[in-house]
Amino acid sequence: MQSTLASVWHPIGGVSISDLGREKYLFHFYYEVDVERVMKNGPWNFNSHLLILHRWKTGEDPLTVQLHWVDFWLLIHDLPLGFMADTVAYQLGNFIGEFIEYDTVATQLGYKCIMRIWVRVDVRKPLKRKKRAA
């Protein structure tokens, strides 16, 4: 696992992986920039299994951390031009899961019917595929 993920992530300082048992692993990065890049560019998978990553905080027990949330970049298609706004992105993100960020670059590049939002999704719940206008 370590060599495969290291070849995908290309961490500047490397990564070490400890098997904690019960299908949990502790990833140790040596540079903050590596952690940020891996967390922001996910989600990741290994052997067709979703890796649910959590940024460990001092004092937390890695074995008891609840791993139910994954951050996804989502594309929202076929939005009318008048709906390409921060408030709409926020509402759609919170409908799907928990809104994190709205990518305005996609709109500026001319992809006017597509909105890209970063959303935290609870993997225990089914995905929401459609939202109808009220």
From TrEMBL:
It comes from the Eukaryota. Residues 1-62 form the DUF4283 domain. InterPro entries: At4g02000-like, DUF4283. It holds the Pfam family DUF4283. PANTHER family: DUF4283 DOMAIN PROTEIN (PTHR31286:SF153), GLYCINE-RICH CELL WALL STRUCTURAL PROTEIN 1.8-LIKE (PTHR31286). This is DUF4283 domain-containing protein.
